[in-house]
Amino acid sequence: MSHKDIHLEIRDAVAVVRLSRPAKRNALSDDLILGVRNVFENLPDTVRAAVLDGEGEHFCAGLDLSELKERDAGQGLHHSRMWHAALECVQYGPVPVVAALHGAVVGGGLELASACHIRVADESTFYALPEGSRGIFVGGGGAVRIPRLIGAARMADMMLTGRVYNAQDGERIGFAQYLVPQGQAFDKAFELAQLVAQNAPLTNYALMHALPRIAEQPSDQGFLTEALMAAIAQSAPEAKSRVKDFLEGRANKVQKA
Questions:
Q1: Minimal CA–CA distance to 183: which of 118, 101, 248, 253?
Q2: Which residues participate in catalysis according to the annotation?
Q3: What is residue 221's three-state secondary structure?
Q4: What is the structure's pLDDT at 250?
């Protein structure tokens, strides 16, 4: 799983995956995208959650435009589908992924962040989709994932006008679920990943793989899928043990935040 531009560290049940091209603001080359896919496809079985971070001042400044090549329509189609397959390994991979956002979360970097399950932004974070001003269109899944976070109208506005969202407004509209002081995104993301890693694996699987699909199904289909997933999850030995612990007073009760 070694890659010159990705640093992987396993901390107990949490994998820390860090983009390591700080001189390029962690811009995404095809080689780096394939490296991300390879890492998430080959995480050790002991890993229960992951944190995705960027080295240096920025999470990811988007596509490395120095690699932008002339492609005919067919080549462009296959190139985009390669990115789709790579980011599917993040969204629908083996474990939930918490993104630690800071600095630029731009273009392909925003597409990558939107494939993660939880996003923690610090106050230095800013979001943009400059593809519109460069005569191109998103191709890494952004047209599907980003409207699910902020709505199609807001995404269109960003691409039509070059609008940039700061950290506070980005959290307000849905780019991130958490906003923390500058420099604290990784620590908060790692804390959350540790909590996620304590969940029953089958519950995490349901939240990653079933919930997004249920949310897009017609109600009658969604109810059936939910019932099937609930039955499978509660039948797992770990689920039975956890419920028993709660009923017998060995598990913490929910407290007011």
A1: 101
A2: 111, 131
A3: helix
A4: 76
> Is residue 113 classed as helix, strand or coil in its secondary structure?
helix
How many independent structural domains does the chain possess?
A: 2
The answer to whether residue 1 sits within a structural domain is no
**Helix/strand/coil (H/E/C) assignment for every residue in the chain:** CCECCEEEEEECCEEEEEECCHHHCCCECHHHHHHHHHHHHCCCCCCCEEEEEECCCCCECCECHHHCCCCCHHHHHHHHHHHHHHHHHHHCCCCCEEEEECCEEECHHHHHHHCCCEEEEECCCEEECHHHHHCCCCCCCHHHHHHHHHCHHHHHHHHHHCCCEEHHHHHHHCCCCEEECCCCHHHHHHHHHHHHHCCCHHHHHHHHHHHHHHHHCCHHHHHHHHHHHHHHHHCCHHHHHHHHHHHCCCCCCCCCC
Collapsing DSSP states into helix, strand and coil, what is residue 140?
A: coil
Which stretches of the chain score pLDDT less than 50? none
Residue 219: how many other CB atoms lie within 10 Å: 8
Predicted local distance difference test score (pLDDT) of residue 71: 83
* Tokens of residue 18, six digits: 């860090």
pLDDT of residue 70: 79
208 located within any domain: yes
Q: What is the bridge-based pairing of β-strands 49-54 and 118-122?
A: unpaired
Query: 73 with 126, same domain?
Result: yes
Is residue 254 situated within a structural domain? no
Same-domain pairing of 103 and 32:
yes
Answer yes or no: do 163 and 210 share one domain: no
Whether residues 191 and 234 share a domain: the answer is no
